[in-house]
Design a protein that fits this description.
By secondary structure, this protein is of the alpha/beta class. The chain contains five helices and six strands; from the N terminus they run αβββαβαβαβα. A six-stranded mixed beta sheet has the order 1-2-3-4-5-6, with helices on both faces. A hairpin with a 4-residue loop joins β2 and β3. The termini are far apart.
Length: 144
């Protein structure tokens, strides 16, 4: 998991398997989502229900850190599933996301294409510290 020791006490695991992890920090109202490896539809059969479960945790204007450092290029049917998931995040009231970039150029292009299609707003960073700092600042500037 990618958090500091201070955050761990506020962290709840929504889903964790060989392909993705979804955690929620109740103090920050922030989702931590890590994408791992290559996906096939047969391998991620619980994905939709796990994404729907996020709505039971988040409050309006939540933020999200998406760690794509281990993401591999997805087939088209998985790309469509990921676009759906990004749309769900927006429907659940996501304010903004921060992406921790993959070193794989093609995976990065694919993720950019998916986020563009779903209108999933994000900043791009090379590590979690930068992403956390940026989201914290963004939240302060956009509090309603």
């Amino acid at each position: 998991m990618f958090t500091t020791k201070i955050q761990i006490k506020y962290m709840e695991t929504i889903a964790k398997n060989n392909f993705y992890e979804i955690h929620y920090n109740s103090k920050k109202n922030r989702v931590y989502y890590k994408i791992k490896g290559f996906w096939s539809c047969d391998a991620v059969t619980n994905y939709k229900s796990d994404i729907i479960s996020v709505s039971n945790f988040v409050r309006p204007n939540f933020t999200m850190i998406v760690d794509t450092t281990q993401m591999e290029v997805h087939p088209v049917e998985i790309e469509e599933l990921r676009i759906w998931a990004q749309g769900q995040a927006l429907e659940y009231g996501m304010l903004m996301a921060a992406q921790i970039l993959s070193t794989d150029f093609i995976s990065g292009l694919q993720f950019d294409n998916m986020t563009e299609q779903s209108k999933f707003m994000k900043g791009k960073f090379t590590n979690i510290e930068q992403a956390e700092e940026w989201l914290d600042k963004y939240e302060q500037e956009h509090k309603k």
